[in-house]
Design goal:
The complex is a heterodimer of chains A (298) and B (198). Chain A is α+β, with helices and mostly antiparallel strands and 298 residues long. Helix content of chain A is 46%, strand content 14%. Chain A has a six-stranded mixed beta sheet with strand order 2-1-3-4-5-6, with helices on both faces. About 31% of the residues of chain A have low confidence. By secondary structure, chain B is mostly helical. Chain B is 60% helix and 0% strand. Chain B is globular. The termini of chain B are far apart. In chain B, 44% of the residues are buried. Classes of the chains: A alpha+beta (298), B mainly alpha (198). The interface between A and B is large, with 37 and 46 residues.
Chain lengths: 298, 198
Amino acid sequence: MTDPHPLTDDDLSLALDGEADAQLLARIDADPAAQARLEELRAAAQLSGAPVPPLDDDVVDDLIARAIDTPVAPVVTGTRRSSRRAAPWLVAASVVLLMAVGLSLVWAGRSSDDDQASAARDATEAAADTSGAGSAADSSFSESADTGSAAADGVAGGHGSPTTVAPSTSSASVPLLYLGSYASGDDLRAATADSFTDAWKDNGELTFDDPDTESDRTQGRSMADPPSSASVDRCADQLQITLSMEGAPVQSGYATVDGKDVLVYEFATASAKDADRETTLVAAVGADACDEVVFFER
Amino acid sequence: MSNVTSLDDPARLVEAARTGDRRALDRLLRIHQPQIHAVCRRITGNDADALDATQEALIAIVRGLPRFDGRSKFSTWAYRIATNACLDELRRRKRRPVVGLPEHDGTAVDPVDPSLPDPGDTVGDRDEVDAALAQLALDFRAAVVLRDLCQLDYAEIAEVLEIPAGTVRSRIARGRAQLADLLRGNQPAPDERPTPTP
């Protein structure tokens, strides 16, 4: 008599995984074809379970170091910037280029050969200017990184002197507040838990807003010396991208944490826990490498 | 400073890492990295993608750790992140052009489409395991790897893949059956291949 419910691969796979009941196991034992198929499935399981050679120790070290040193990015629902959106400078440059070419074509239609040559020359120059601006904007990150480190090398000034640093781009409208010196990131977090102003007032209310003093810096840099505007902007730009922030920092400051110069930013954003709640993200990073010191949400 | 003895306890290790203990985090990642890489190696099918997926998974673990609520085992949570990182990596690979593979004749192939084989199948130096697993649909491949390589039980795999346990059982059985057929030299018929899970 034919079995109305022949054993399937599902049944045999269950047996292979120790999930079959006694009745199913008995049926398999009594069926040579099922046993043969079971062995085929066992061979398949051994194949897919074949061990993977481990990575070299230095590769593992590198993977883990990168993972730990990557800034923590909050989940910001609905406000994430599209990576495909064209940069504003690129749009502007394209418009200028198109206008230049269009005008030259119109002019060429009305002019003599000499005039056409002149207009074309003008258009070419305009395009070159535009393209140069684009290139400059495109490479601004690496340039600012270079100038950042160069400026950092020459930073000096007295403790408490109202010097600085006029942030040139993203932080240009934000005064740079001195937030103090702390033994750990947690201490900095505690001092800025409610606002930057608390820490700023506790540390002499130093604000840096004079761009000319940057070139006047001398030797003898102290803990309260401001970082360069390039490094302030460089880390702000990096954080804005890494953390998917919609806008530039609404507040910037600097501090010393365990002897390390630290830049501290405050971004207006949606809460990672509740996307409908507006909050501020405080991000403190090392001034040299923009590496994470402490990140928290208010 | 972490107490070394306390970090021998997995739960305390996770908690210490969650609260920002860098040494605990380093240790936690070192403990789980081999299995994460193994999963990525078998699911992606090649060293380069596996390395990228492993890196992404480790970063995602570090980023997500403050939100890890402990309702599932850490390893289960880590496997879920690793599996998702692998799928993301394969999607990225899909966006890269596939050029000059003789079998596909330059036609774009969707490696994430479970009805199609991995485009890397044609590379001659793949080992037998990769070549066989690459023939499986991704959803079958993930289930089989989590069971046979990681030794997760059906309930854990269901949690990792966020599918019912019955679906896990079916995917493992069908994945193994296809592998068994491949080992016998029989290519599974296209109509036996699974349809994508929504």
